[in-house]
Write a structure and sequence with these properties.
Radius of gyration: 24 Å
Number of helices: 14
Bound molecules: ligand BES, zinc ion
Shape: elongated
Strand order of the largest sheet: 7-8-10-9-13-19-14-15
Structural class: alpha/beta
Number of strands: 19
Largest sheet: 8 strands, mixed
Length: 497
């Protein structure tokens, strides 16, 4: 969607009119609205036929003054940027053929941040994944153009805000494209090739691919064990933005299981197709790199994606195997379906030993238990640093992506380290607290900074997006499929904007 700013009063295409609850007449700033359309709007408002409750929509047509789409913002004193973002998304979700491809949005009394948020909602919701359809699903909505009318003095600032939002949205949509891609075309080296292709668009990014042979040489036992049973071999893809800069920087790590059958601990058949989304953590990392690069972020950021396909095969790992990870620590693999933590063990260790992280954040569709705990409404959030966890929680709240604090308890760590024959085990003693035991397991692979008495574990957070990366029906920014969640949270956390 192309969003442009205009300081004129012209209305192109359908008029989009955001309104507050209780407005009984057309607001003052109505120049440019043809009188017959104006009369129609006035009538609807006066009669109380449109109450402007949040996300209510009403289409008006049939006069020679053109068409209008009224969108409710709810009560004025309650409306915040989330209200505006959702309203923008609702407009796009409600568009039908009759509205055409051109929209003009006319705000009254809204500040620039709210207007930009509305535009962001429109852009976020303007997404469909129809690469594999002969007839494109949203043919009618192709090439939507929205114009936002604003005062002349505000035009430059508003257009800056909207350009930045468009860059960030491109990262969210990239994450969604990667997640929605069918698993026959989305396999570890295909992801790596997409990353290499992407890097060609920017002078300040670098992509390094550690392929299967190199991963074996380096001792990435977790990544290798998970991926070796597939004919499409695993790899680690490392993204670097502004790599020439010195000093500490964020490192993001993603679980990238391009298909999770469970391996020899095979999953039941029902809904197994959804396990194509099991690379959502890596898609979040890639999407965040795109959002940052495209919006011109000048700091250094590294992304590490751990890519593998988890297949049952003659050469797959077995329950009972003991593997040696990059850290040197061993893992007794008691269930091959708890594979995400195995690939992440190498990714986290790499993050803390090859780089100088200000902090590490990992993203993973890690556990069904997290979906049991939080449903599709919030991501599970764990951290070894309470302040850092709060910062991520706040960043998520700022952009309308909930990440809920969960406990990292010593008892869970003990449960995951009491293997009789190895340093750790990849399965808890029972099924209770499965999302917490998984987080406690990951913590074993976050390196320390410094040595001896000065050693302190690197600041780290783990985000379990099993419930939020897809299937989140109440997420208004998304029609269906991959959600692209937390690209915006990370941009907020990293850039502070
Ligand atoms: N990819 C799954 C987690 C998952 C399940 C995500 C359902 C989204 C929806 C993960 O690899 C997995 O299978 N985890 C197991 C862990 C268990 C064997 C300890 C699980 O959650 O059942
Ligand atoms: Zn699994
Ligand atoms: Zn998995």
């Amino acid at each position: 969607m192309q969003v442009t700013i205009s300081s004129g009063n012209n209305i192109n295409g359908t008029l989009v009119l955001p309104l507050f609850q209780g407005e009984e007449s057309l607001p003052e700033v109505d120049e440019g609205i043809p009188s017959s359309l104006k009369i129609q709007i006035e009538r609807v408002l006066q009669d109380g036929d449109f109450k402007a409750k949040a996300n209510a929509v009403l289409t008006l047509m049939g006069t020679d003054g053109g068409k209008a789409l009224l969108i409710g913002l709810g009560k004025e004193d309650k409306a915040d940027i989330h209200t505006y973002r959702e309203a923008g998304a609702t407009v796009v979700a409600s568009l039908k053929k009759v509205h055409g491809n051109e929209l003009t949005v006319l705000f009254h009394g809204s500040d620039l941040a709210s207007m930009a948020s509305f535009a962001e909602g429109m852009m976020l919701r303007d997404y469909s994944y129809d690469l594999y359809k002969m007839k494109k699903e949203d043919d009618d909505k192709n090439d939507l153009a929205a114009r936002i009318n604003c005062s002349e003095g505000d035009a430059t600032e508003l257009s800056g805000l909207i350009d930045r939002a468009a860059s960030i949205v491109s990262g969210v949509h990239l994450s969604r494209d990667l997640g929605n891609c069918p698993p026959n075309d989305m396999y570890p080296m295909a992801f790596a090739e997409k990353a290499e292709q992407w890097a060609k668009d920017y002078d300040n990014v670098k992509v390094e691919v550690i392929d299967y042979e190199a991963a074996k040489r380096h001792g990435m036992g977790g990544l290798v064990a998970v991926g070796m049973g597939s004919s499409r071999k695993p790899c680690m893809v490392i993204f670097t933005l502004n790599g020439d800069l010195k000093g500490q920087h964020p490192v993001l790590v993603g679980k990238g299981i391009t298909f999770d059958t469970g391996g020899i601990s095979l999953k039941p058949g029902a809904n197994m197709d959804e396990m194509k989304y099991d690379m959502g953590g890596s898609a979040t990392v890639f999407g965040t790199m795109q959002a940052l690069a495209s919006s011109g972020y000048a700091g250094k950021v590294v992304g590490i994606t751990c890519m593998a396909e988890n297949m049952p095969a003659a050469n797959a790992q077995r329950p009972g195997d003991v593997i040696t990870t990059l850290s040197g620590k061993t893992i007794e693999v008691l269930n091959t379906d708890a594979e995400g933590r195995l690939v992440l063990s190498d990714g986290l260790w790499k993050a803390g030993t090859d780089f100088d992280p200000e902090y590490i954040v990992d993203f993973a569709t890690l556990t069904g238990a997290c979906v049991v705990a939080l449903g599709h409404e919030a991501t599970g959030l764990w951290s070894n640093d309470d302040d850092f966890r709060t910062r991520i929680h706040d960043a998520g709240n700022d952009v309308g992506e909930l990440a809920w604090p969960m406990p990292l308890l010593p008892a869970f760590e003990k449960e995951m380290t009491d293997s009789k024959i190895a340093d750790t085990r990849n399965l808890g003693a029972g099924r209770w607290g499965g999302a917490n035991t998984a987080a406690a397991f990951l913590k074993q692979f976050v390196p320390n900074r410094g040595e001896g008495d000065d050693a302190e574990q690197i600041t780290w957070a783990h985000m379990d997006i099993a419930g939020t990366y897809w299937g989140a029906k109440t997420n208004k920014m998304v029609g269906h499929g991959a959600t692209g969640i937390h690209v915006r949270t990370m941009v907020r956390l990293i850039t502070g904007e």
